Amino acid sequence: MLKSLLSPVIVVIAVLIIPVIGEAFIYLPLIFSLSISLVNFSKLKTKLKFIGVLLSVIQTYAVFLGLAITTYLSDDFIDHLSLATEENFALRGIILVTLGGYLAALLLYYFSTFLYHLERKRFGYFILSLCYILVVLVMQIFSKAEFLQFGVEKFAAYLISWMIFMSLGFSITLNLDDLKQFFQAKK
Length: 187
Fold this sequence. Notes:
The chain has helices spanning 2-17, 28-39, 49-79, 89-115, 121-143, 154-174, 176-186. Helix 1 (2-17) runs antiparallel to helix 2 and helix 5 (121-143) runs antiparallel to helix 6. It has one domain (2-186). The longest helix is centred in the middle third of the chain and has 31 residues, at 49-79. It is mainly α. It is built from seven helices and no strands.
């Protein structure tokens, strides 16, 4: 149970300790990958665990970079649709952020299946989908959809909340057996 909560706690502590983290987006994938790989060190498939942590960091940066490029290219594509009016600026932001954030979570999970010992992979996709819904709900409640507009300062808050909830989702999927044992012991 503790391992499932430790990754999001590490993300929160890192964000609180490092005051410029919201401005320095380059560190966010590093914090995310280290919070998951170091907590779940024993679940790595590689014989040299350090190599597994390094591969986790590299894969996270690759997915984040790929999704940033895809989001940038999708922005041009969405501009050519009928959504390009001023009234639909927020809707365009919702589409781009959801596409980028959700795809990043799914891609990271897919590539994590090669690095970590995972039992029920389909259930992991379900958990990550639920966690992403939580990200969108929390951001809707606390920022009244302003975070979805590019150029607004709330985008950093979206990324940080994405990291917190996705690290929770990854930790739950990686430690599913431990969680089952914890709840069975409580009965």
